[in-house]
Write a structure and sequence with these properties.
19 strands; binds nicotinamide-adenine-dinucleotide; alpha/beta
Length: 371
Amino acid sequence: MPSRQPLNVGIVGCGTISAAYLKTFARLDAVKVVAVADIDFSRAQAVATTHPGVRALTSEQLLADAGVDVVLNLTIPAAHAEVALGAIATGKSVYGEKPLATSTAEARKVVEAAATANVRIGCAPDTVLGTGIQTARKAVDDGNIGTPISAIAILGTPGPERWHPNPDFYYLPGGGPLLDMGPYYISALITLLGPVASVIGAASHTRTTRTINAGPRKGETIPVATDTHVTGVLTHASGALSTLYMSFDTVATVSARIEVHGDQGSLVVPDPNTFDGDVRLRSLGATEWQTLPVSAGYVDSSRGFGVADLAGTAEGREPRAGGRLAFHVLDVMESLLVSAQEGRVVRLESTCERPAPVPLQSLAATQPGVM
Ligand SMILES: NC(=O)c1ccc[n+]([C@@H]2O[C@H](COP(=O)([O-])OP(=O)(O)OC[C@H]3O[C@@H](n4cnc5c(N)ncnc54)[C@H](O)[C@@H]3O)[C@@H](O)[C@H]2O)c1
């Protein structure tokens, strides 16, 4: 990967989430968007028209373009592996939206191809690099809760068809609450408690169709071909146990998104699908929760900071939002579904290092909202 600054990024997939990345890159010096592509060319053209200096290309042109250092893959999950392999085949590093692929079999091809081509893989979520999860991680590392024993991670919503105009992919294999939202929660749990050694899962789905409630297709019925409520227990290599609850079958919940418990304290961790938020500690013997000062992470971060992190990672080092973590997260999720199907404990073949902690710092050239 060329070490030029800024890193020239070509985006493949100009759908809903691309706007968030474009907004972030407008305030980051380390990253510059030079080209965009989409299977629906009009979407790429729309981005190029509103972003001076950005060229609309076909995917093939973008992958072959010598001016593109890193391909940012913002396509739907079913296309993640294909687009990543295309980028790697042209010798480019690739950073993709989560999950890394829809199966570990596909993801393995991506990881192996990248190793052979000597290019890098980065993968969302980069929310875990923000001040919320990083401050919680520092509290764990500093011994604020003593020896970590357990965690609870809960995502409970009625499903994305309420707000997403094209929610089909959420209900296809590779989607569902686990593969869609699990990466945020499991990446956070691994950041906090380390890699996972084995899992036990249980899963269900209650409806065979969902009705779109937003955009031009409002009222249209789409099929459900994946489990929409998944629960499980992750046994971390450290011995800590995380209980996971990922559901598109929950109307509402007041549970903390993540709690981590140790022998000396309990920690409330903010939503891992956001970049900041309060971390609260209750020490053994204390009568009150205390909000911890922000002590680690990228300040004012937003979607795309993982790409800047990759740009700033020294040659030979794994980016924090890196392929090894993303592969392990996918393996955890796939193993949960295998466990749910087969009713047995599944031991994981993959593992990863805990990503390097992020010291408290700012990457942004300007403040959020100033573009
Ligand atoms: N929407 C969100 O709020 C959100 C949040 C975080 C992460 N994500 C993730 O971002 C990814 C994209 O989600 P989205 O909501 O933007 O989806 P989307 O359907 O709105 O956009 C996907 C875009 O990719 C294009 N595309 C699909 N296959 C392609 C291919 N083979 N080559 C080129 N372009 C192709 C589509 O035409 C579309 O414009 C998913 O992995 C999703 O999990 C979405």
